Amino acid sequence: LNRELFKKLKEMKYMGNVKIIPFGYHENTAVFYAVSDCVIGKPGGVTLFEVAAFSKPFIVWGTLPGQEEKNARFLKRHMFAACPKDERELKETIVSLISGKEYFKRIAHNISTIHKKDAPLKISGYVLKNINSG
């Protein structure tokens, strides 16, 4: 938890006509994704799965070196997420989202296309088939 950022967000309360409700760490983030207009965070595997499942616009922020950097490049290249480079660009991106730009509707639609509801069944079927045939 970034305590300094959490404190700033808690003090803000509103950004224009948008209410800001910061939360600390929670185990069940899917509940928050379901009711959010947008998700801002690191592009880890679980986060990407949940954002895609809920068809939410995603803003990549706080990427760790390695797999998350690769995920961010992939997301940006395919217009699945916005990837601001610095705090100024992050603020501009959020303002753009709040003002209802078509870009974010497109991102939400695009990321929803990579979510495959039957993926776990297909993967487990493939694994079982290959275990049994080996």
Verbal overview:
- With 134 residues, this protein is mainly alpha-helical.
- The protein has 7 helices and 4 strands.
- The chain has helices at residues 3-12, 29-35, 45-54, 67-77, 87-98, 102-112, 119-133; strands at residues 14-15, 18-19, 39-41, 58-60.
- The strands form 2 sheets. The chain has a two-stranded antiparallel ribbon with strand order 1-2. A two-stranded parallel ribbon has the order 3-4.
- It is elongated, with a radius of gyration of 17 Å.
- Cα-based radius of gyration, to the nearest Å: 17 Å
- What structural class results from the helix and strand content? mainly alpha
Lateral arrangement of strands in the main beta sheet: 1-2
Distance between the first and last residues' Cα = 46 Å
Instruction: Report the major sheet.
Output: 2 strands, antiparallel
- Strand percent estimate: 5-15%
Overall average pLDDT: 85
Regions with little confidence, pLDDT below 50 for 5+ residues? none
Estimate the helix proportion, in percent.
Answer: 55-70%
Question: How many DSSP E strands?
Answer: 4
Order of helices and strands: HEEHEHEHHHH
The shape is elongated
Tally of contiguous helical segments: 7
Topology:
Layout: H1 3-12, E1 14-15, E2 18-19, H2 29-35, E3 39-41, H3 45-54, E4 58-60, H4 67-77, H5 87-98, H6 102-112, H7 119-133
What is the compact description of this entry?
This protein has 134 residues and is mainly α. The protein is 57% helix and 7% strand.
